[in-house]
Amino acid sequence: xxxxxxxxxxxxxxxxxxxxxxxxxxxxxxxxxxxxxxxxxxxxxxxxxxxxxxxxxxxxxxxxxxxxxxxxxxxxxxxxxxxxxxxxxxxxxxxxxxxxxxxxxxxxxxxxxxxxxxxxxxxxxxxxxxxxxxxxxxxxxxxxxxxxxxxxxxxxxxxxxxxxxxxxxxxxxxxxxxxxxxxxxxxxxxxxxxxxxxxxxxxxxxxxxxxxxxxxxxxxxxxxxxxxxxxxxxxxxxxxxxxxxxxxxxxxxxxxxxxxxxxxxxxxxxxxxxxxxxxxxxxxxxxxxxxxxxxxxxxxxxxxxxxxxxxxxxxxxxxxxxxxxxxxxxxxxxxxxxxxxxxxxxxxxxxxxxxxxxxxxxxxxxxxxxxxxxxxxxxxxxxxxxxxxxxxxxxxxxxxxxxxxxxxxxxxxxxxxxxxxxxxxxxxxxxxxxxxxxxxxxxxxxxxxxxxxxxxxxxxxxxxxxxxxxxxxxxxxxxxxxxxxxxxxxxxxxxxxxxxxxxxxxxxxxxxxxxxxxxxxxxxxxxxxxxxxxxxxxxxxxxxxxxxxxxxxxxxxxxxxxxxxxxxxxxxxxxxxxxxxxxxxxxxxxxxxxxxxxxxxxxxxxxxxxxxxxxxxxxxxxxxxxxxxxxxxxxxxxxxxxxxxxxxxxxxxxxxxxxxxxxxxxxxxxxxxxxxxxxxxxxxxxxxxxxxxxxxxxxxxxxxxxxxxxxxxxxxxxxxxxxxxxxxxxxxxxxxxxxxxxxxxxxxxxxxxxxxxxxxxxxxxxxx
Amino acid sequence: xxxxxxxxxxxxxxxxxxxxxxxxxxxxxxxxxxxxxxxxxxxxxxxxxxxxxxxxxxxxxxxxxxxxxxxxxxxxxxxxxxxxxxxxxxxxxxxxxxxxxxxxxxxxxxxxxxxxxxxxxxxxxxxxxxxxxxxxxxxxxxxxxxxxxxxxxxxxxxxxx
Lengths: 768, 161
Description:
- Chain A is flat, with a radius of gyration of 32 Å.
- By secondary structure, chain A is of the alpha+beta class.
- In chain A, the strands form six sheets. Chain A has a six-stranded mixed sheet with strand order 10-14-15-13-12-11. In chain A, strands 21-25-26-24-23-22 form a six-stranded mixed sheet.
- By secondary structure, chain B is mostly beta strands.
- Chain B is built from three helices and eleven strands.
- Chain B has helices at residues 73-76, 125-130, 152-160, and strands spanning 18-26, 29-34, 38-45, 57-63, 66-72, 86-93, 96-102, 104-112, 116-117, 131-136, 141-145.
- The A-B interface holds A 228, 231-232, 235, 470, 472, 521-522, 563-569, 571-572, 574-575, 577-580, 584-586, 588 and B 48-54, 57, 60-62, 65-67, 69, 95-96, 98, 152-153, 155-156.
C-alpha cells in the first residue's frame, strides 16, 4: 500500500488527468482557445512537478515530453490538429496507466515508454499555424457541449434544490402517492452554447482552492456504513413510533426522534449524492474515439448533467452507460454515406439525458440511427435457438426487442472490437437490475433507438404502502401506486366483473384488469372464499402496465428499509426484497413489474408514448393495444378495449326494430345495434334467449355490437401485410391467432343525421 | 467448550484430531454440525413463509437488521412440517447468511476423528448428498451434516440439476 503522501498525489493526479481529458475533447472544437490550452498545460506541469519531488522518474519523463509539446501549442507555434490531440490523449492514457501501476505495486514499473515519447517528439514538427485546423478530416465533428467543471460548487448547489425536493418525496409519510417530479431545467449549463473565449479555467481556479478548505475526502466505505446505520435507525424509529403511539408522555419525545432521524437520513443521503456529470464527462472522449474508429460522424448532446444520484449507483451505471454508448455508435448510428443515402443528416446525434422522476433518475441514451428491426431479431433468435419458431411468431415486436438483453444475443452481422459479441446489452441489463433499476428499450426502424435506464435515487430507503394478503404483510413501492379503491364486501361481487377467468374493474368508465394477490401467491385459492370480505384495489402503474392489485387489507404507509433477499429466492421473481416493519414483522416487497408480467397485463398505449422521447413520438403510438376478444357466431373478432364502454347482457326480446334496423333502448337513448354475424337472427326465434351487446364509443357515437360470447381481454400485436412490410389494417395478432378488428366506424355506415332523428322519433312513439 | 460433557474416545494414535460438534434433533434422529461453522443459534423462532418460494425454504426471519432466509431441514429429510416454533442455526456462506430450521438444539460433543465413518453405500442418494458421514457414539449414531450443502444457493442449483 502506498504511503499517505503518494496516495494523495495519486488522487490529485487522477483528477488532473480527468480535467485534462475534458479540456482536450473541447480543444478539438476550439483549437485556438488559449484558456483551455493553459489549463491542459497546467495539469501536465503539476504532475511533472510532483513526480520529480516524489522520485517517480518514469512519470516525470513522460510528463516532460508532453509538456514540451504543450508548450509549443501554448505559445502558438503549433496548431492543435487532430493528430496532436490524439497524441495528447495517448499521453494522458500513458500517464494514467503509470499512476495505476503505482497504485497497485507502489512503484512505477520498468517500461520506458520510448514509443510514446518519440511519438510525442515527432509531433513537435512545426506546422504553419495560420492554416485552418482540419478537424473534419478525422471523420467526426462532434459538437460537444460545454460541461460544468466539477470543481464549480455552484453545480452542486443548483442541484441541491432538486435533491432536497427528492428527499422530501421520500420522506413524506402521506398515504397517497407522492408524485413529486423534479423537472430538469432545459436551460441547464449543458445546453448552453459554448462561449468562444471561455475564461472557464480561470474561473474554476479560485473556487477550487476555496472548496479545498471547506471540503474533506471521506472514504466510501465509511459513507456506506453510515447509510446502513441510518437505515437501522429508521427501522428502530418506526418501531419506537408504533410502541409509543398510545403514550402521550412519550409522543413528544418520539416525534422529536422522528424529525431528527429524517434530517439525519437526508443529510447522509445528500453526502452520498453526486451529479451525473461525473459519469457523463467520460462520454465525449469515448464518443470521439469510437466515432474515429468506426468512421462515424456523431454529435453528442448531453442534458441534465446536474441531476444527482447516489455515489454507489453512479459507479454502478458507469459500465452500462459505456456499453450503451458503444452499442449506439456501432449498431445504431450508420456511417455518413449510408445516412446521406437514406436522406438523413450525415452527422448522427447521440443524446444523453438525465432527469429525475419522483424517486427515480431516468437516463436516456437516444440515437437517431438505424433502429432495431424486430424481424431481424426474430430471425436471429430462432437461429440461435433462444426461442422456438412458433413462439417467435407470437411475440409482439416490443417483447421481441427485449430479446437483445439475453446473454449471447447480437444482431451485428460481424464481431468488431467495439461490440457485436453479444455481451453488451446483457451487461447493461444485469448491472442496472442489480441496483434495482430497470432498462427499457424502444426502437423504430430507420428512426433510432431509445434506451432508458431507470435508476432508483437511493437503494436503501423507499416509501411503501403495506398491504395484507394471505395473512401476511407485503410492501408496495409507492412510486407505482396511483390510487386506492375500497370495495365493500356486499359490493364485491358486483364491482368486480369477470370475463371468463379475467377479473375486471370499471374505473371511471374504463375497464381495469385486476390481479388477485392471494390467487397469484397461493394458486388454487377459491374464488368464492375470497369474495365475502372487504377488498381493496391498488391501482398501479408498473413499467407501463396499468392494473389493479386486489388485496385483503391496507396498513399504514411506511418508509421501509430495503433488505436484499437470498439469491435462492430471486427465482421466484415476484419479490424485490424484504423489509422489517415497525411492528417488528417482516414484509416482502412486491416487484410490481414482474407481477404484471406474470399476470400477462399488456402494455398500455399511453405509457408507450410516454417512453418515447419527442423525436420518436410519431403517430404510431398505439402499438400494443388491448382488445376485447369476442365470438360472433363462431368467428373471433376483436374490439379495441379503449372503445368499450360496457358489456350488457339482456334478453333478446328487448331488441326492437326500426324498419330492418335493430335498436335498443339503452338508458333512455336509442342505441343502434350492429349485427354482423346474424346473432340477432339466431336469437329472434327464441324470445327468452340472452344476448350480449358490447356498447362501444367511437367518435362520440355509441354503437352496440351483438356478439355470441365475450372471450377475453388481450393485448394485440401488429401484423405485417405479407410482402408489403406495412401494418395490416383491420387485423391483429391476439393469443397467437389472427383476429379481425371490429371497425366501428365502418360497421356503422355514417347514417345521415336526419335518418337517425326521424327514426329516433318514430322509435320514441313505438316505445310509448 | 472443551469442558463440555459427552463421550470422549481418546486414541493413542497421533493422527487423531478432535472436533466440536453441535447436536441437533429432527424427529427422532440426532444430527451433528461442526460448531465452528455456526454463527449463532436462535431459539424458538417462527419464520414468515414466502409464497411461491422453493419447497426447501422454511421462511424469513429478522436477524440483526438483516432478513435471513431459512432452510427447512424437515422438508429435506422428508419429515412432516411442525406447528410449534423451531430453533435456527445461522451459517455464513458466500451468498450471505442463511438459517437452518431444526426441532431443537442439543448438547455440544467433542468427537474424535477415529469414531467417524463415511456414509454407507446403502444410503439413499438424496441423503448421501446431505450427510458427510456419522460418528459412532456409545448407544447411537450421530449423523454429520455439511452446512455447505444446506446453503440455499447450493440447494437451488441441486434442484435445478
